[in-house]
Amino acid sequence: MVSSKMRIRSTGIAFYVRQSPWRMQADILPRVDLVNATSNLTKPRFLPQQPPGNDASAADEEIFEANLDAQWGPDLPSGPVMVLEGMDNRMAKLFHRVRQLSTSANNMARSNVNPDLQEQYNQGVHLLECQVNASIWSLSLNNIRQHGSTTRPKESIAVRTCCRTWHCTTLIYIHVMLRKTPTSSQTVEKLGRRLRFSLQILTPEELWVHFPAQLLLWCLVIASIASVGRSDRLRLLQTLKRLREELALNSWEATKAILVQFAWVEHVCTRPASLIWKELDAVEL
After folding, report:
1. N or C of the chain: less Cβ packing under 10 Å?
2. DSSP annotation of 175
3. Is 222:172 a contact under the CB 8 Å cutoff?
4. Are both 103 and 236 inside the same structural domain?
5. DSSP readout, 107-133?
6. Are 44 and 151 part of one and the same domain?
7. 153 φ, ψ to 5°?
């Protein structure tokens, strides 16, 4: 006899659609579908706005990304869009949303949150994950980023080097820091595996010369938090320890001062990151 859990695993979202009440499908199904897409590096199938096909033009992809961006309300904490080293304008705009939601999460942790505000925050996290997935699947725009076109130049070597790792890290951050998904979840495990692979395929020159060091630091710390307890994290920690030496970071306080410039949820990030920093003392290169 096949258990209900086995049936769900074997038939996936199609089984969920058949079994869930109609009202539940309308609300939860797009979120389940999006997490499934994030986990398995596939396109979402049940979102109100479906991403363009794989043969879409750059113009079509830009329209789709602009439509998603237009869904943001005016209630998030304000602040300038900063184009940090290693990010192009598209990445910087998404990272601005990451920083805004991080500020909201920090503010919510210091006060009692009413249900409406919590739901607004949850919708923002969902929309951000939609946008990062759309960025990953904007194949024409990503091709221009890497190689240029007849009308647009390719991006800097720093952007081209780190964009894959940045996308993986941002999705990990969305799940672990903003959504508080357990690090033991399959989604986080798969994202961590993709992030480690994105680093492994870089040449030494790409990793240690062209990847902006402070952005790499943020990516490695976030990835290390998400990989606590996993047996395959040694290489990640070795890379982080070497970077710590390259940047001459002699204290956790100096390190944190860099990390918070990117995105940081104090009550979620600080304690595990500080413990990892101490753990590096015992890591051999």
Report:
1. N
2. I
3. yes
4. yes
5. HHHTS---HHHHHHHHHHHHHHHHHHH
6. no
7. -75, 155
Q: Supply the range of the domain harboring residue 241.
A: 49-282
Q: How far apart, in whole angstroms, are the C-alpha atoms of residue 38 and residue 41?
A: 5
Q: Give whole-number Cα distances, 97 to 42, 54, 201, 243, 261, in Å.
A: 23, 26, 28, 27, 14
In this predicted structure, the answer to whether residue 194 has a pLDDT above a threshold of 80 is yes
Task: Retrieve residue 56's tokens.
Answer: 């879409």
pLDDT in tens, 56-107: 999 999 999 999 999 997 777 777 888 999 999 999 999 999 999 999 999 9
Question: Which residues have C-beta within 8 Å of that of residue 131, sequence separation ≥ 6?
Answer: 65, 68, 69, 94, 97
User: What's the number of domains the chain is made of?
Assistant: 2
255 and 223 in one domain? yes
Quickly tell me which residue has 């049940």 as its tokens: 46
State whether residue 81 is helix, strand or coil. Answer: coil
In this prediction the pTM is 0.89
Q: What are phi and psi of 82, to 5 degrees?
A: -100, 125
- Who's near 115: CB < 8 A, 6+ residues apart? none
Residues 35 and 175 in one domain: no
Residue whose entry in the numeric block shows the structure tokens 């199609």: 14
Least confident of 151-155, 181-185, 232-236: 232-236
Give the CA-trace dihedral at 126, 130, 136, 141, to 10 degrees.
-140
d(CA 269, CA 271): 6
Q: For residue 152, how many other CB atoms are within 10 A of its CB?
A: 12
pLDDT digits (tens, 9 = 90+) for 214-248: 999 999 999 999 998 887 789 999 999 999 999 99
Instruction: Measure the CA angle with vertex 174, ends 123 and 254; round to 5°.
Output: 130
Tens-digit pLDDT profile for residues 29-57? 888 889 999 999 999 988 888 888 999 99
CA distance 211 to 158: 5
- 269: amino acid identity, one letter: C
